[in-house]
Amino acid sequence: MDDIVRQALAKWPNVPHCTGWLLFDRRGNWRMRDEAAQAAGALGEPIRHTALLGFINRNYEADDEGQWFFQNGPQRVYVELVYTPFVVRLATDDATGKLTLTDQAGAAFEPAAAYLDDEGGILFTDKSSPARIAVLHDHDLDLFSEHAELAGDGRSGQFLWRDDLVLTLEPVRKAEVEKRFGFVGSPAARAAAEAASDSDKSAR
User: Fold this and answer.
1) C-alpha torsion angle, residues 105, 107, 109, 115 (rounded to 10)
2) d(CA 89, CA 69)
3) Which SS3 state, helix, strand or coil, does residue 32 take?
4) Torsion sign (Cα): 99, 102, 107, 108
5) What strands lie across the sheet with 165-172, from one edge to the other?
6) pLDDT averaged over the chain?
7) pTM value?
8) Per its UniProt entry, which superkingdom is the organism in (predicted)?
9) In this predicted model, what pLDDT tens digit does every residue of 149-168 receive, in sequence order?
């Protein structure tokens, strides 16, 4: 977290949280969602400003309930996730010929386990604690397939990450990823449900 953000939090600790306005899409793009986009259920407009993207990525964290947010100064801006909290790119290092994985911020992502969902998506968890869950960018599926072997049923297999490390491709249902890996895909929907429940209780 940036020092300027820590200072803002110390100065204004009780700024209300924000939900619904920031979205992280399936290809690792950050998107702003105005009221019209939210009402239409649209993804919103991609953020292109390099400095702002860096600021978001440096101050992107999860709370104790698995809700991911961008700490924008004193305000916590909760993020709507199209799929996972991280998207990774697979590439081949020109110097070594080895595969590399990097997250949306360009940081190295060292995989510890690999998964194949029921829609053909590839996911990885890393070696951090707690482990991060990331989906592979769909543009990199061809490169992935060059280093993977699928079982006959197409639901499992293995991925040759390094000469000495083969990752088993474990099957997982896309609808179960959020619960299995402990994150909240839509903090806005969760906040709305909690507000409705509180309103119902007060009306009784």
Assistant:
1) 10
2) 22
3) strand
4) negative
5) 99-102, 86-92, 133-136, 122-126, 111-117, 165-172, 157-162, 148-150
6) 90
7) 0.89
8) Bacteria
9) 988 887 889 999 998 899 99
DSSP 8-state symbol, 128:
S
Annotate 123-162 with b (16+ C-beta within 10 A) or e (fewer): bbbbeeeeebbbbbbeeeeeebeeebeeeeeeeebebebe
Cα(97)–Cα(81) distance, integer angstroms: 33
Q: Strand locations in the chain, DSSP E?
A: 18-24, 30-32, 45-46, 60-62, 68-72, 75-81, 86-92, 99-102, 111-117, 122-126, 133-136, 148-150, 157-162, 165-172
**Domain locations in the chain?**
3-82, 86-173
Counting residues of the chain whose pLDDT is more than 90, the rounded percentage is 72
**Identity of the amino acid at 135:** V
Helices (H), the chain: 3-11, 35-40, 50-58, 141-146, 177-180, 187-203
CB atoms within 10 A of CB 164: 6
Strand partners, 167: 159
Half-sphere exposure of 171 (CA within 13 A, CB side): 9
Architecture label for domain 3-82: Roll (3.10)
- The encoded tokens of residue 179 equal 């619960």
